[in-house]
């Protein structure tokens, strides 16, 4: 199974530092979901090179890669993707650019229709998606989420805030 990844960016969540306590819960949820997906036949994760959820999935996936034979791809929308990011974020982008398969779709941004074509290409070349999205907290992810919901025979795994609350509650009950 080949899964497209997308989700909230760190700025959407107000997470600006790797020591934010919410990250521990998010990464616990990601690891739980990845292990479950690997049991269901996950072979490839397809990233789009965004910070936040995608990068946190990448961190967890890199830890699981060897033991599970997981393959990692990054298909960037533009060659210029991330060029204005800080040095710290450039290092994160470099991790995306060092995966098993890396391609760039367009040399640079020209118009909004490029995103529609790009997203359709990603959908056409994956079997499903793993999203961190909650319709009660809309961002521009709404458009991709709606498009994915309308795909026939397309697997969709959604991580929602309620899932994170459940994990946080269980974690605190265990004395974490």
From TrEMBL:
Top-level division of the source organism's lineage: Bacteria
Gene3D superfamilies, per the entry: 3.40.50.450
SUPFAM superfamilies: MCP/YpsA-like (SSF102405)
Pfam family, one: YpsA
Full protein name: UPF0398 protein SSU05
Gene: ypsA
